[in-house]
Amino acid sequence: MATSNDIVTATKGQEEQNVLISEKELFDQCGPVHLTAIDWENVAHQRSVAASLVQGVYILERDKQEKRKGSQALAPPWWRHFQFELYRVLVDDVDSCIFGAIYKFAPSKSYFDGSKDKSQRFVIAFRGTLTKGDAFSRDIQLDVHILRNGLHQTSRFETAIQAVRHVVATFGSSSICLTGHSLGAAMAMLAGKTMAKTGVFLDAFLFNPPFLSAPIERIKDKKVKHGIRFATSVITAGLAFAAKHKNVNNQSGDTFVALSAWTPCLYVNPSDTICAEYIGYFEHRENMDTMGAGVIEKVATQHSLGGLVLSFMGKECDEPLHLIPSANLIVNLTPPSDFKEAHGIHQWWKPDLLVESKKHQFT
């Protein structure tokens, strides 16, 4: 028979366990439960499912950290609700943390209603930086590699691109997509660019992808903002022409045109300084073309000003991750309460989300 001390101890243990569970980890409380039927041609549905699968990767690592297994695991609802199954987890060989997952669409027989199926068969998802647990220090190291344009040199990316190549080689590329959030979006973008350079163009849903530059987008005065971008473009284009004339080694621009056929979906929030510069990056191209300076911008957009300067100094500089020719840019116009919400993954499956979408094609 249990004593009063046993009951107190058990109650205390349950309370401690509940503290470790964040409300945002629970699909029934914070997930897109409103999506009871998925229309794969609906862009809002696509966005919500992709974001949920990324959240599933976050929770997989949290389940691992908190030793939640079986019925106690919180991750499975984030993919089972959409009739996906976990095909494989991707583990970093440095700290053994889960940073990605491959999901396989496995619908029940009753799922199909006779209409043409537009669903993705395999989704390869990557999480962003975790601020809690054992994965934090390794994630921060990867964030630093992004700052240095060196993500492609990490063992985590090597694991990721090998997984992508395996799925493509095994199942083909037509029904495979990449998705990720923050650091994970950078991982997915780099994987997408790497495959695109070989002629394989994968669908990609990239949430809050990092864009590393001065925070020009935060300037409220449009004339000042445009003036800074115009001056930067002129200087960048001038250095690019000079570098070509002097045969200065610079990797930016070498494969830019070849990548133009790849059109990933970029989901950004203007209040998130980590990704907001994508808005100005594409908007400035159109402004330059309108004012008759499209030739200058066509050259400038293929290069990094910092990379060109380093090249002239005789230093090697890898291609910045954020230089992409084409994209479907989806901007969340719903005002966030704070930066955490503006950068978070949860915003992207809200049913009342106000977004503005525009396709930018490099020609």
From TrEMBL:
The keyword Zinc does not apply. Keywords: Hydrolase. Coiled coil: none annotated. InterPro entries: AB_hydrolase_fold, Fungal_lipase-type. Residues 121-201 form the Fungal lipase-type domain. SUPFAM superfamilies: alpha/beta-Hydrolases. Signal peptide: none annotated. It holds the Pfam family Lipase_3. One of its GO terms (molecular function) is hydrolase activity. The keyword Hydrolase applies. One of its GO terms (biological process) is lipid metabolic process. It comes from the Eukaryota. PANTHER family: ALPHA/BETA-HYDROLASES SUPERFAMILY PROTEIN, ALPHA_BETA-HYDROLASES SUPERFAMILY PROTEIN. This is Fungal lipase-type domain-containing protein. It comes from Solanum commersonii.
